[in-house]
Amino acid sequence: MKRQELQYGPGFFYLVGIDFSQNHLTGGIPNQITSLNGLLNLNLSWNHLRGKIPEKIGDMKSLESLDLSRNYLSGKISPSLSDLTYLSYMDVSYNNLTGPIPPGRQLDTLYTENPSMYDGNNGLCGPPLQVNCSGSIEPGYGKQSASEKDSESTFFYFGLCSGFTVGLWVVMCALLFKKTWRICYYHIFDRAYDRVFVVATRGRKIKAEEIKRPV
Predict the structure, then answer these.
(1) pLDDT tens digits for 44-77?
(2) Residue 4 lies in a domain
(3) In CA terms, which of 26, 47, 106, 162 is 20 to 30 Å from 185?
(4) The pTM is what?
(5) Are residues 120 and 154 in the same domain?
(6) Among positive and negative, which fits the CA dihedral 175, 178, 183, 187?
């Protein structure tokens, strides 16, 4: 398809999938492509496309998969991408894109499933990346800071100690005020002590006999 210009009839608008990956395509992505409302999959990766991502790409409401990776696209990511509610895969890695990443629950979900979708675009900034748009590094998106983790650990151990103390106090009060429980507790303790004493005595006797036994 290199250096060829093709024309398509009205049936072109009923396409559900376009895969022009690895075709050495040049130029920009035509804005007319956004009129393909029934398109489900669009793959233009591994070409030499330049220019911007069409602003009205969000009009392709049926789009489920979008791969524009490994090109030379520049400019900002169109905010209309956040409107693609059926989009389940997106990859714009290794271009020359700049500016903030559009906010939106859909794009956040896609990033969670494919964290490399923005790789190779050093000019991109803002969540979910760790570089804010002022140029400084932010803590990992969706990760807890060290102070938050320390606070949670402190509350955990405090709750653990409090629970142990309360439980021990309840047991001691029961033994102190309830005579039958106290008698039962001492009975169990005595039996356990007797068993340990018997086992230890037998062990000493066996060891003494082994020492006295001639080799």
Answers:
(1) 999 999 999 999 999 999 999 999 999 999 999 9
(2) no
(3) 162
(4) 0.60
(5) no
(6) negative
